[in-house]
Amino acid sequence: VKITGSIVVFCFLLLIFILTFGASFMLLFLPEEADLDSLEFNGYTKYSNALVTTFAMMLGDFSIQDLHASASPPLATLLLIIFLFITGIVLLNLLIAIMGDKYDEVQENALAESKYARARIVLEYEQVIPAMKKEQSRADWYPEWIQALRKGSVEELLGSEADDGSAAWNGRIRAMKAQIEGRSRDLERKLTRILEEDKAAIQGQSMVVDERQMKMVGALERIQLRQERVEAKLDALIAALGTK
């Protein structure tokens, strides 16, 4: 039913094109301007006939030879090409896109639609039950509070509350956008984790390098200290030899 209802826009556009091109072809085949004697069948004498002939053109039932009898054969041929292009390519792709989008919408809300149908059936059965039976079983059938659990993430639930409970599917593009955003968030989290791990590893390696550098500085200081002691002993030895 929803898919059929979505074709109304397509039918309206198709009707506009048929009415417009039908009037154009009828004007090109006016008796005072066109060579109607060369036609075996003239489907353009009346506007109603022109509409039927234009609709048949859309289905491929046309003859190029008939266009040569019009007041302007090149213009009639050009109108035919434009009409076939619009109806055969543009409008056909539009119809496919509309039906595909509506089918995806129905599939997206299939679970909700099934629950809604079950609720309607339950309501119809309740209307058949006598009032006395309802009053006797009120405590069991009609509790004061009903707890409902909703499946979904916190962001989805908050988003549905912000939209006043409307969970209408807004087309394949929005679903793809939500999927892409989810993937991008996952990739961002993975990249952040990898960067943190690399940063921690670099910091650990820098600490090891600093520690080794401090050890080398300490070793150089000890070597310098020993060198100073050796020089001091040599000076003392030279001084002792000089006094002798």
Topology, please?
Layout: H1 2-5, H2 8-28, H3 47-58, H4 64-67, H5 73-108, H6 110-128, H7 131-136, H8 138-141, H9 154-162, H10 172-243
Helix pairs in contact: 2-3, 2-5
Task: Explain how this protein is built.
With 244 residues, the protein is mainly alpha-helical. Helices cover 77% and strands 0% of the residues. The chain has helices at residues 2-5, 8-28, 47-58, 64-67, 73-108, 110-128, 131-136, 138-141, 154-162, 172-243. The longest helix is centred in the last third of the chain and has 72 residues, at 172-243. The chain starts with a helix and ends with a helix. Residues 160-169 have low confidence and may be disordered.
In short:
By secondary structure, the protein is mostly helical.
Which characteristics define this entry?
elongated, mainly alpha, 244 residues, single chain
> What is the radius of gyration?
44 Å
Strand content: under 5%
* Global shape: elongated
Helix content: over 70%
Mean pLDDT, as a whole number?
78
Number of helices: 10
Order of H and E elements: HHHHHHHHHH
Number of strands: 0
